[in-house]
Structure formats: structure tokens, C-alpha cells
UniProtKB/TrEMBL annotation:
Species this protein is from: Marinifilum breve
Record-given protein name: Sigma-54-dependent Fis family transcriptional regulator
PANTHER family: ALGINATE BIOSYNTHESIS TRANSCRIPTIONAL REGULATORY PROTEIN ALGB (PTHR32071:SF113), TRANSCRIPTIONAL REGULATORY PROTEIN (PTHR32071)
Keyword Nucleotide-binding: yes
Domain Response regulatory as annotated: residue spans: 6-125
Length: 456
């Protein structure tokens, strides 16, 4: 069956054009030919081509290849994603290398090796499909980012502490300096990381979030650096790592304090050299990422205790942002509550809700051990359980921590009780794994391992 591809052949040899057309017609959706390269650009304006097979020499007695290279430049100026395969009667390797450096995807000789010619053109077509898919995804991502970010700040807060954070973000965002965001769990480190990205020159590029606390040691390199097909048992195809995926944009390394010491060097090397080597590969891949990292750990103390590399800390800590806990910015509770009220009433198709003074007072007096994440969970629960548009203090349900609740177990089987306790913690926190892990006194990586173990 014919391939879904459009081919343009540019050569001054009429017999060769006819032979190519006859040979390739069963492999391409459409084939157009032109003898005069001066018609090339106008032809490209009329129709979009997936592959262009271009002669390198048109004038008799000249075999420098300069004509082909000139027309290659014209094609790429018109369409930077064009896939051009050069064809020549002269097997000049240096010329082939030069052509590839100038942007050609391959090079074949007029030796009429049907198998080689066909495989080269079909490979070029697949490359074109990949390029167009990437172009489409980037375009969609750009439009999505523009729509999401239009006149919008991710961070909420008018308190003095948050104004200090905004001031630092304003200063650092436009640079490419690496940023380390610290603060308790639930203080909004990811939100601030997105704000840094939003205000940067990379805002129309991708923002990639990696939860380092949730990646097992065995998958660390594969997740971050990618892998080649066959690199290990389950590697059934090539996979791009998070560093390469984020190239051109921002890579957010969340929970960086959870990275084991023996893997920190691999992370440092990637950041320093601005390149990664996929697992099972031998060729480094160049990357261009801005690093924003976050942790609730005291990394300086970890360095002193020999648990975190000092050189890695310096690499990620060009600029430091410390986020205040919610109890340190109680002035922002009313605004945050209203934001989540509007979000969840819309999400659950409820009428607009408002809190009266008693409800806000109750929220402002709470200690907020779970910070903004806890507030978000409480407001979501409030919206789900209430139908009134006016919320009083009694409508705001602030549950006590699981670890403060003593319940006699039905049995003393440790495995069964651990399974039940994990399940209850996940239910209590509304599926928020960070809060569930905190309630259980373990890190997220351990929690995910146990969820897998108990098939929860």
C-alpha cells in the first residue's frame, strides 16, 4: 500500500526523473518532479512536501556540490523542518559530510541501488513525521501556556513575607540562574517554581516536574536521562528522559533532598556538563534546561552530616527562596480560601459560596501543620459536604491528625495493620500522597513502595 507521503524530486536529468517516478510511485502518496531548481521555492509555496530529493549539481561539468548546498539553504529558509536527501553521481564523502552539516538528512549516489534509495527516503519520511509531530506538540504547548498564563500569577498572597518572595522572583525570573526553593511541606514550592518559569524568557517552553522522592533508585537514571531499547528487560523502545524532555524550558526537581548520596553525583554531572547519556547509550545528548529545585530538608545540615554533596548544593543554590509557613502569613488565609472556594464550587458544579466572619476566624486560628495543602483539602471537603451558599464556622470541618487518634486494632498482625493504616491515611488526606506520607511518618518514595506492595 502507498505510503502517506509527498515527495519532490529536483534533477536536471529527465530520464532519471522518470525512472524515480516509476520506481517510487507505489511507495509515496504523490510524487512531483522539476528539472529547473529556480522553480523550487515557488513549488514549495504551492504544496507542502515531506521529502525532497535534490540533485547536488545542475550545470554541466561542475561537481562541487555548491549548487545543491545553495538550494538546500533556500529550502531550509522556507521550511526549517524540511527533510532533504541529496543525490549525486559523485561519491564524495567530504561533500556528503558537508551536506549533512548544512542540514541535509541523508545522501545517496546515482548508482541505482533500489533498496538503499527506498530505505533512505522512507527513513527521511519518518523523520519528517517526527519533526512535524514535535512542531505540533510545541505549538500546542505554547498556546496552552499562553492561555493558562494569560494575565495570571500562580502565587497568591499580599502578606509581607510573600511580598519578599515576589520581589526575589521578579529579580531572578528573567535570568537563567538555578533556583532552590525551601519550605515546609504544603507551602507551595511547586506553585512558586511555576511562577519563576512563567516570568522567565522560557515561559513559552515546557515546564517539567519531577518528584525525586517518588522515583526508585533502580529507575533513577532511566527516568531522568532516558534509555535505549534493550538497555534492560522492560526497555522495549527508546525513551526520552526528563532532562531531554525539558530542554529549552524549566526542569523542576522536587524533593531533591531525598536523592541518595550515590546518585547525587550523576545529577551533578548532568547539570554541570549540560548533557545526559541515556541508559544503554554511548552518545551524550546536549540539553539546555533551567534548574529549579525544591526541598523541605535543611540541605546545609545534610552537607555537614555527609548526606548531601556540597558541590551539588552550590550548583542548584545560585538563588535561594524560602517560603513561609501558612501560620506565618495568616493575612493570606482569606484570599487563599476564596480562591479554593471558587475553584472547587466550579469543579463540583456548586453554587457560589461565601464564608462569614466566624468561618474565616476559625480558619485563621488553626495551626495549619499541613500549610496551604491542608487548607486546600479542608476547603474542598467543605464544598463537597455543604449546599448552603453562606458558610459558618460549623461548616468548616478541620479533622484531627491521624497520629493523634488512638484506635484499638482488630488484630495485632503488623502487615495487615500497616495495610489498613496506609489505606486510612490516603483516604483521610483525600489521596494527597505528600500529606499521607507525613501523617505516616515516612517519605513518599517509601509510601509508593508500600502501595505497590499491598496493591492499594
Amino acid at each position: 500500500m502507498p505510503q502517506k507521503g509527498r515527495l519532490l524530486i529536483v534533477d536536471d536529468n529527465e530520464e532519471l526523473l522518470f525512472a524515480f517516478q516509476l520506481f517510487l510511485k507505489s511507495h509515496f502518496e504523490s510524487i512531483d518532479t522539476i528539472k529547473n531548481p529556480n522553480l523550487l521555492v515557488s513549488k514549495l509555496r504551492e504544496k507542502e512536501y515531506d521529502v525532497i530529493l535534490l540533485d547536488m549539481n545542475f550545470k554541466a561539468g561542475i561537481n562541487s556540490g555548491n549548487e545543491g548546498l545553495y538550494w538546500l539553504k533556500q529550502i531550509l529558509d522556507f521550511d526549517k523542518n524540511a527533510c532533504v536527501v541529496f543525490i549525486t553521481a559523485y561519491g564524495d564523502i567530504e561533500l556528503a559530510v558537508r551536506a549533512m552539516k548544512e542540514g541535509a538528512v541523508d545522501f545517496v549516489q546515482k548508482s541505482w541501488d533500489e533498496k538503499h534509495i527506498l530505505s533512505t527516503l522512507l527513513a527521511a519520511y519518518k523523520l519528517r513525521c517526527s519533526k512535524m509531530e514535535i512542531k505540533s506538540l510545541k505549538s500546542k504547548q505554547k498556546r496552552l501556556n499562553q492561555e493558562i498564563n494569560k494575565n495570571k500569577s500562580f502565587v497568591i498572597g499580599k502578606s509581607p513575607r510573600m511580598q519578599e518572595v515576589f520581589h526575589t522572583v521578579d529579580k531572578v525570573a528573567a535570568t537563567d540562574a538555578n533556583v532552590l526553593i525551601t519550605g515546609e511541606n504544603g507551602t507551595g514550592k511547586e506553585v512558586v517554581a511555576r511562577e519563576v518559569h512563567l516570568r522567565s524568557t522560557r515561559s513559552d517552553q515546557i515546564f517539567v516536574h519531577v518528584d525525586l522522592g517518588a522515583i526508585s533508585e533502580s529507575l533513577f537514571e532511566s527516568e531522568l536521562f532516558g534509555h535505549k531499547k534493550g538497555a534492560f528487560t522492560d526497555a522495549k523502545e527508546d525513551r526520552m528522559g526528563r532532562f531531554e524532555l525539558a530542554s529549552g524550558g524549566t526542569l523542576f526537581l522536587d524533593e531533591i533532598g531525598n536523592v541518595p548520596l550515590h546518585l547525587q553525583m550523576k545529577l551533578l554531572t548532568a547539570i554541570q556538563r549540560k548533557e545526559v547519556t541515556p541508559v544503554g547509550g554511548s552518545t551524550p545528548v546536549q540539553i539546555d534546561v533551567r534548574i529549579v529545585a525544591a526541598t523541605n530538608c535543611n540541605l546545609h545540615k545534610m552537607v555537614a552530616d555527609g548526606l548531601f554533596r556540597e558541590d551539588l548544593l552550590y550548583r542548584i543554590n545560585t538563588i535561594s527562596l524560602e517560603l513561609p509557613s501558612l501560620k506565618e502569613r495568616s493575612e493570606d488565609i482569606a484570599e487563599l480560601s476564596q480562591f479554593y472556594l471558587e475553584k472547587f464550587t466550579k469543579q463540583y458544579a456548586k453554587e457560589s459560596m461565601q464564608m462569614n466572619k466566624s468561618a474565616l476566624t476559625k480558619l485563621e486560628k488553626h495551626a495549619w501543620p499541613g500549610n496551604i495543602r491542608e487548607l486546600q483539602h479542608i476547603i474542598e471537603k467543605t464544598v463537597i459536604l455543604n449546599d448552603s451558599t453562606k458558610l459558618n464556622a460549623e461548616d468548616i470541618i478541620i479533622g484531627e491528625s491521624l497520629k493523634k487518634t488512638e484506635v484499638m486494632p482488630d488484630s495485632f498482625n503488623l502487615i495487615e495493620n500497616e495495610r489498613v493504616l496506609i489505606k486510612k491515611a490516603i483516604q483521610f488526606t483525600g489521596g494527597n500522597m505528600s500529606m499521607a506520607a507525613k501523617e505516616l511518618g515516612i517519605n513518599r518514595s517509601t509510601l509508593y513502595d508500600k502501595i505497590k506492595k499491598y496493591d492499594l
